[in-house]
Backbone:
């Protein structure tokens, strides 16, 4: 069973993934940490301290106490078994001497805009997949479009390298790019030669380069499906490709079973979507210790207002307003509760968001300690002159709601 060879009509889709993005941005700021294990995920108290001799004193993972998690880590830290999503206390046992830095999302967003602008100068058809990754349609980019036969592969590689060079010139950062006929394979390919990799895979390379990989390398096969496949003796993508489509459908359902067969054979017709509207925006934080609504009222009130302020900033910066404002609470027993309030008109200003979120709090039993708090805006709409006029009037009328909160609203 050999995959078909590429033709002149083959699409060329790139997946670009910035290398250890947050950590790499921090290394631009602190070049003395290059080559060291560095973990990003600390708080304000983990800011480096400038010493009298001009050097910096950095926080170390071994001194961390709390329940925070790793946002990202440098490759030397990853070599020690540390990875994103891991609890910082657990990471401290594996890499106690690793440097711990606080997150700086404003700076990461700035570099995100820089690298995407650099890519757009070479190839404008971009699908934004987050702060550090994008898909790019290279099919009709000059240098690819005109090339034919084997020269076409050379043209694809040259354009991908030009993109990498442009990103580095604009940011000083490296990225890894996978280029294949579709998004599914490109997502896999971009991770095969990290960091600073460039991997080009054609349909004819599927059996040699993709099939030996574990099934979990396919984006869309999670832990549950992976465990079920393993129980059936299917561990590699090649094992999956050897299964009959109807056999997979019988065991995983008509839709997912058919998708598993297609994915293992490198079939993916999804286009690069250059624009999509977000469904919601949210901000949340996990506390380093459980907080009580009464005894820690001032702290919770401050954090709650800061989250609302960050959410308002996100909405305004991206040009959206939300009609549904919600909250998310996780208690010390890990029970999670959400509450939503739909407003007569959409909002994006801090006072209105804080007021609506406070109304949601009235509908929650706050007798247990809290470990997580979040706020969310849903039912999003693009800002228009009408909406902005409403927001301006609402903001003027309710500005006191933040600095001098309504006494009837709970502040924990």
Residues:
């Amino acid at each position: 069973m050999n995959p078909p060879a590429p033709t002149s009509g083959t699409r060329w889709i790139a997946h670009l993934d910035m290398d250890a993005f947050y950590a790499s941005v921090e290394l631009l700021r602190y070049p003395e940490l290059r080559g060291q294990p560095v973990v990003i995920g600390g708080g304000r108290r983990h800011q480096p301290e400038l010493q009298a001799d001009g050097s910096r004193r950095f926080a170390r993972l071994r001194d961390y106490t709390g329940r925070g998690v790793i946002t990202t880590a440098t490759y030397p830290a990853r070599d020690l078994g540390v990875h994103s999503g891991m609890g910082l206390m657990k990471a401290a046992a594996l890499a106690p001497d690793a440097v711990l830095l606080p997150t700086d999302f404003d700076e990461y967003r700035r570099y995100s805009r820089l690298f995407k602008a650099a890519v757009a100068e070479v190839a404008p058809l971009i699908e934004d997949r987050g702060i550090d990754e994008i898909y790019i349609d290279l099919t009709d980019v000059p240098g690819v479009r005109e090339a034919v036969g084997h020269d076409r592969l050379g043209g694809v590689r040259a354009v991908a390298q030009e993109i990498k060079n442009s990103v580095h010139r604009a940011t000083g950062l490296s990225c890894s790019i996978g280029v294949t006929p579709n998004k599914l394979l490109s997502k896999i390919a971009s991770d095969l030669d990290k960091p600073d990799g460039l991997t080009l895979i054609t349909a004819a390379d599927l059996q040699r380069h993709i099939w030996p990989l574990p099934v979990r390398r396919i984006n869309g096969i999670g832990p549950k499906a992976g465990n079920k496949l393993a129980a059936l003796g299917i561990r590699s993508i090649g094992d999956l490709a050897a299964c009959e489509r109807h056999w997979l459908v019988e065991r995983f359902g008509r839709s997912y079973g058919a998708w598993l067969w297609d994915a293992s054979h490198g079939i993916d017709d999804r286009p690069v979507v250059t624009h999509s509207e977000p469904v919601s925006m949210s901000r949340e934080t996990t506390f380093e210790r459980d907080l009580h609504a009464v005894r820690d009222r001032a702290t919770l009130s401050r954090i709650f207002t800061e989250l609302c302020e960050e959410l308002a900033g996100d909405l305004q910066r991206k040009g959206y307003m939300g009609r549904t404002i919600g909250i998310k609470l996780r208690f010390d027993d890990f029970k999670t509760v959400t509450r939503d309030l739909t407003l007569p008109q959409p909002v994006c200003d801090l006072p209105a968001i804080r007021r609506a979120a406070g109304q949601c709090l009235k509908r929650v039993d706050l007798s247990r300690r809290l470990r997580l708090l979040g706020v969310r805006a849903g039912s999003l709409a693009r800002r228009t002159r009408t909406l902005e006029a409403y927001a301006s009037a609402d903001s003027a009328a309710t500005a006191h709601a933040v600095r001098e909160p309504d006494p009837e609203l709970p502040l924990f």
